[in-house]
Amino acid sequence: MDENINEDSQLSEVLEILGRVKPESKLTRHCPGSGCASESIFTFSRCGNYYWIVLICKSGTFAFKHISPEWIRTYSNLILSSTQVCVEWNINHYITDWAVEQDKFCGNYDDRKMVRAV
Predict the structure, then answer these.
(1) Per-residue pLDDT tens for 52-93?
(2) Which of 1, 48, 61, 65 sits CB 3.0–4.6 Å from 95 for a disulfide?
(3) DSSP 22
(4) Number of domains within the chain
């Protein structure tokens, strides 16, 4: 039960953050679900809580996860560099599971046009 209360207060914080960051968005609240992210937002609240917020493609909804600075250091590059990020969320829009997809190259490297970073 305490977990739901905590998720409810986190949901309120996230809605406040989204109101400031994406004031033009008309986000809706849906039942539990899953979908792919159209946007990832890493942010923190006035209370010092860190969040990963995703806007879900074509649904007008969102999902979020309470995270730590260590979590950001570990996973943010993976999330930001992936071609697709999919999440599942519960009734409070809290992310319960997530996965990323990265394009991989299968073929002859000599035929591939590559750009080298210097």
Answers:
(1) 999 999 888 999 999 999 999 999 999 999 999 999 999 999
(2) 65
(3) -
(4) 1
